[in-house]
Amino acid sequence: MADAARKTAARAPAPSGLALYVHIPFCETKCPYCDFNTYAGIEALMPSYVGALANEVGGWGKALERPPLRSVFFGGGTPSYLPTRDLTRLMRAVRAAFDLPRGAEVTLEANPGDTVRERLAAIRRAGFNRVSIGVQSLDDEELRLLGRRHSAEQAKAGVAAAREAGFGNINVDLIFGLPGQLVASWEHTLEEALALAPDHVSAYALTLEEGTPMAADVAAGRLREPDPDVGAEMYRLAQEMLAAAGYAQYEVSNWAKPGRASVHNLAYWQSRPYLGVGPGAHSYLWANGLPALEALGADGARFATLRSPRAYIEAAAGWSPDGAGTPDAVAKSPLVSEREALTRAAAMSDYLMMALRLNEGVADADFAARFGEPIETRFAAPLAECASLGLLAREQGRTLLTEQGRLLGNEVFERVVGAAQG
């Protein structure tokens, strides 16, 4: 397992406050592997959608008593597909509804085809200071397989344009383990991506999600089923090459230069409170030093927004929080389609599953401070079993995934959930 210096080298400061996720469901085309709540061909909804979304942002700012934000993340979908004026309007709504500290991380997901220097400069002026570019591959044949609407050269030009536009914090997303993909091709993508000198790299193994066109093609034999052993080899290659290039792995699928770990995504992995706005967005709110959340208690609530963009627009356009405080807003909002008051056991298992994704793992002291009891009280048996299988290790009061555990993380998470439910 990596030493302490490697574990902490990429960590950014952990500011207090709420992480805000803003969902943009529009795509010019939908990729065949994607099962996110995104849509192509509904551009006519953009104007009414932006107005409804701005209204939802304002409503939550009122219900939560204008809390401070630790980060803002515009994801999708393809947020860069929205006109710049709409992105600017939404950022104004965020600033009006929440306390957004100067220098807080504000990320926009972007397709390489949308990353023209002049437009990116305008997006910077709107308040975004981090851009996450969906490169996915730097092989044109693989990009066609993935249904991407850019070429390898456009992806390289997009990253260069973001740097020229003044972005000092750039992430590139990559996917490996594609049907028929060769290790040599993945190595080429990594080499080309590293030559672009991004500040952060996210490298995800392809997951064939049920109901997607790519999963159907594999099931029908039109595409070769990805080989998990080859995928594991690609993952290890990514670890080696990124480490050699000065990137510290801080989470299962994420690497960063010093100080460039994703503040927003760390909120998820550290089980800090986050709010999602837009159709299908998820939220997790609990009393974490934010006065408006105290009534939710230490374990809090999870909830999700209506998935249909049209239903969302209708509900969000006229929404105003009914009554004061967070519990009323969660219970009575017409935007909330699913609600769950978390039990202590569920909050514990969520905390463990997310924190174990981090290189630093779970600290005994942090777990005890969060839940008022030692980790061994409920999870001694599954943690011991996973350690005996070589999936977990203990280091200086922390529980960590081993290298093998990173490849078989679901084996660990299933045992953790089972212990919590038992």
Q: SSE layout and pairings?
A:
Blueprint: H1 4-8, E1 18-24, E2 26-27, E3 39-40, H2 46-63, E4 69-76, H3 84-97, E5 105-110, H4 117-126, E6 130-136, H5 140-145, H6 152-164, E7 170-176, H7 183-195, E8 200-205, H8 213-219, H9 228-244, E9 248-251, E10 254-256, H10 263-269, E11 274-277, E12 282-285, E13 301-305, H11 309-317, H12 326-332, E14 336-341, H13 344-355, E15 362-363, H14 364-371, H15 376-388, E16 392-395, E17 398-401, H16 403-407, H17 409-421
Helix pairs in contact: 2-3, 2-11, 3-4, 7-9, 13-17, 15-17
Would you write up a description of this structure?
By secondary structure, the protein is α/β, with parallel strands linked by helices. The protein has two domains: 4-267, pyruvate-formate lyase- activating enzyme (Alpha-Beta Horseshoe), CATH 3.80.30; 344-421, Arc Repressor Mutant, subunit A (Orthogonal Bundle). The protein is 42% helix and 19% strand. The strands form four sheets. The chain has a nine-stranded mixed β-sheet, with helices on both faces. Strand 4, helix 3 and strand 5 (105-110) form a beta-alpha-beta unit. Helix 2 runs parallel beside helix 3 and helix 13 (344-355) packs antiparallel against helix 17 (409-421).
